[in-house]
């Protein structure tokens, strides 16, 4: 998260941001401009959306990508890279969601620290959230934080496994499919 652009209420932010061509996030009155992703980032998101869309066909759940917002109480409006909601309350014109069960962030060097710490802390305030995934296209690391029955978040490192498992939606994606279309070798190979 960079330097705030301006100070607004959440209602002012939603009205202001609705007509902007660029994406901005909101945290406790501060507005932050979003930066664009790179090829690997976009490729992983496209692969995820294809597989999640197929998995969720004929279910009440839907997957959305980086142009849809998630609102956390009156404190934050964020753009997850990918999220799934089973909330039946949304309409066809809705762009702000409040009840995702799964959020996935595709990491970049400039956002990795924020996605792992502050952003995850904000998302954990969502009562609906069951899983938070982190995917690093550069190193091919795949991690999932899963909410346990005891209310604690458990880290599952799937970086060396053949599949990326998302229990909240009963989905498994082969790692090869997750990184399909990324011809170069991962960093550190």
TrEMBL record:
**What InterPro entries is this protein classified in?**
Nuclease_put_TT1808 (IPR012296), Restrct_endonuc-II-like (IPR011335), Uma2 (IPR008538)
Highest taxon listed in the record's lineage: Bacteria
Molecular function (Gene Ontology), one example? endonuclease activity
Keywords, A to Z? Endonuclease, Hydrolase, Nuclease
Q: Which CDD domains does the annotation name?
A: DUF820-like
Q: Which Pfam families match?
A: Uma2
Q: Does the keyword Ribonucleoprotein belong to this entry?
A: no
The protein's matches in PANTHER family, at most eight in alphabetical order, are given as: GLR1098 PROTEIN (PTHR36558), RESTRICTION ENDONUCLEASE DOMAIN-CONTAINING PROTEIN-RELATED (PTHR36558:SF1)
Q: What is this protein called?
A: Uma2 family endonuclease
Organism whose genome encodes this protein: Pseudaquabacterium terrae
- Lineage of source species: Bacteria, Pseudomonadati, Pseudomonadota, Betaproteobacteria, Burkholderiales
